[in-house]
Design brief:
With 201 residues, the chain is mainly alpha-helical. It has one domain. It has ten helices and no strands.
Length: 201
């Protein structure tokens, strides 16, 4: 009975934990920003050096730096400070869920079977993610209305942030998160099935 309850908790936690892991790996990855800039045409607007410099500055700001070293308006700086708070909340939520997920795994006698079931069940999360991708513009607005109720997220089309980070940039970032999530589920299934020699679960 206890094992059944723990397994169901694991199945609920696992996909969200893995998705937040994927999000963290993309949000703080300079290569992800470069790919987003390339597809959005940001390099054509700013030149090759400026977007990468801005990305490195933003990542450092999100991680540890107190000041964002970019030429932004006060409203843009205020919004980026709120974005930093949201990203820290995502990272904190991931750390908590990871701790709970690992705890559930340790409580189960057959960890390999539990990991296999969890990685397969994780595919269900693709349904809402697909809906977000299809209706991205509306979802993007809802996201900002929910996480930034103060309303400091709208800027003119010629503002620095809009030119640096157009909507298509965030579409690409979400796509990278989803792809990383799918690949992670697949690799964990292979791991649980014992496809990697010398690795025990």
């Amino acid at each position: 009975m206890r094992n059944t309850i723990v397994l169901h908790v694991l199945l609920a936690l696992f996909p969200i934990t893995l998705l937040l892991l994927s999000a963290n790996l993309v949000m703080y990855n300079p290569l992800a920003y470069s790919l987003g800039f390339w597809h959005a045409g940001t390099y054509d607007s700013f030149g090759v050096g400026e977007p990468d410099k801005a990305a490195n500055s933003m990542i450092a700001y999100f991680l540890w730096r107190e000041k964002l070293d970019l030429e932004l308006t006060d409203d843009e700086r205020s919004h980026m400070a709120d974005v930093k708070d949201v990203m820290h909340s995502v990272t904190a939520a991931f750390a908590l869920l990871l701790w709970l997920t690992v705890g559930c795994m340790l409580l189960l006698p057959n960890k390999r079977a539990a990991l296999l079931v969890a990685s397969r069940q994780g595919i269900w999360l693709l349904a809402p993610l697909a809906l977000i991708m299809v209706f991205f513009s509306r979802s993007f607005i809802w996201f900002h209305e929910w996480f930034f109720p103060q309303g400091n997220y709208t800027f003119p089309p010629d503002s620095y942030l809009i030119r640096l980070l157009p909507e298509i940039f965030f579409v690409d970032m979400l796509l990278m998160i989803v792809l990383l999530y799918v690949v992670s589920c697949w690799l964990l299934q292979l791991w649980a099935q014992g496809r990697f020699r010398g690795v025990q679960v």
